[in-house]
Amino acid sequence: MSDLIIDSSKSGVYLGISGKQSFWEYKAEARGEKLQDFLQQALSEVDLNISAIKRILVFTGPGSFTGLRAGIAFAQGLCFNGKRQLYGLSSLAAYFHYAQKALALGKIMVAMPARPGFFYVGYGGMSNGNLRAELFISEKDLKLLCKDYHIVLAEEKYLEEFKGVAKSVNIVQDMDVFKFSPLSFEQINPNPLQVANYLQVSYAEREK
Predict the structure, then answer these.
(1) Is 117 left (phi over 0), alpha (psi -120 to 50) or beta?
(2) Are residues 99 and 75 in the same domain?
(3) Are residues 67 and 146 in the same domain?
C-alpha cells in the first residue's frame, strides 16, 4: 500500500508518494490539468500503478485560493470511486506537527505570511489532526503573542524581525514539512467529503 501526498497551497505543487518506494518533488508549473501528468511521472518513477495508492493526504490551506481549489478537487476525484481514503490537513497543522516531532521544541507557535503585515498563526497543540488555535492576526499582535513560544516561520525573510521577541526563531523549509506529513495519517480520520479552508469563511472575514 502506498500513500499520495499533495500540497498545492503555494505557487506550485509538492507531490509525494510514500511507501516501499518514495517520490518527492516540487514543480512550479504543475497546476490544474498538469497535475495528472505530474502524478503519472511520479508513479512511473517508483514503478507503481494508481491502484497501489490507497490513501491520499491533501493540504487544505491556508494558501493560494486557486492552488487549493485545484489540488483538493484533484484529490477528491481520485477518491470518488471509494477505492481510496481521503485525508485533509491544514498547512499550519502540518508545520506544527513537523516542528513538534522533528525539532523537539517546547511550546510551539507556527506562523505563515498572509497579506502584507498579517500572518496565519497556529498553536496550542493538536487534537484529531487539528490545531486547537488557528488565527489570522497582525504582525504587531503576533509579536506580542509569541513571547512565550518557540516560533516556527515559513519564510526566512522574517527571521530578524522575531529574533529576541520569541523564545527562539526557527525557519522550516516547505519540503521538510511536506516529506514529514505522512506521519499525520496516524492523527487524523479519513473524510471523503473533506471541506477545504478555501470553502469556509476566511480568517480575514471572521475578524470583521
Answers:
(1) left
(2) no
(3) no
Structural domain span for residue 158:
91-174
| 6, 85: one domain | yes
| pLDDT of 146 over the 80 cut | yes
User: Do 98 and 86 fall within a single domain?
Assistant: no
Cell readout for 60 is 487544505
User: Which residues, at least 6 apart from 29, have a Cβ–Cβ distance to it below 8 Å?
Assistant: 12
Is pTM, for the whole model, over 0.85? no
Q: What is the number of residues in the chain? A: 208
* Whether 71 contacts 13, CB under 8 Å: yes
Q: 82-91 burial, b if ≥16 CB within 10 A, otherwise e?
A: eebbbbbbbb
CB 60, CB 181: distance < 8 Å: no
